Amino acid sequence: MELLLGFNAVEAALEAERRTVERVWVERGAGGRDRARVARLKTLASKHAVPVEEVDRARLAQLAAGQPRSAHRGVVATVATMPYADPDQILDACGSDAIVLVLDEVEDPRNLGALVRTAAAVGAAAVFIPERRSAGMSSAVARAAAGAVERVPLSRIGNISMFLRMLKDRGFWTVGLDAAADRAWDQTSYPRRLALVVGGEGHGLRRLVRESCDELVSIPLSRGVESLNVSVAAGVCLYEVLRQRRGAGAPGTGGGRGQSAEEG
Predict the structure, then answer these.
(1) Is residue 188 part of a domain?
(2) Which of 10, 25, 154, 246 stands the most exposed, by the fewest C-beta atoms within 10 Å?
(3) What DSSP character marks residue 228?
(4) Which residues face 14 on adjacent strands?
């Protein structure tokens, strides 16, 4: 079991029913907007036969394992650990216009959670992470994802370069975000079946991963700015993909110095 903190995360876990929610605690005497959210949470928990207990602020702080109130906003739950999805099953279920996100050694749980949230926002089919040198599923990831871990499958993979070759065999076009790429993110046409590959904090994509991608793109930044947060960079690229899919016209013309997401 693990802790889940905050309204968004707990509500999403109850609604998705991908894992068992054992118990929910809420802060006694919640007022304002939180009062309405507590009422909604109680109704949702009752629907799924999950007990909800009201406790004082001090007790809730204990249950939250010392996390500040800004982290749990008056709601704590114990839930079953989220299982990783099987990569083959995910790919078997992908449609002809599927988008997947492949992460190359993203080690900060907050960045992983933000990336899962970004993936959910654009309707991505899954997020793939390597088994080594990568953040894994945790309460910190779930908190940063604000409920998105309940909606987007997170899957562990082995060697990323080999996995990218497997994606290509299944009809995916693999695009990597890389600082040295000559082509800007909005100067390419993204195919319907797409895998976006982003690198970890500090180093970006590793050489073998870069060489395994079908195409590399960069995000131009103003002079003096080193990099974008990895989840921001992924969002910039993914929303260009959506723009093109909605028939917003041909790719635009980028300019300036190319830079990938390298720091969290």
Answers:
(1) yes
(2) 246
(3) B
(4) none
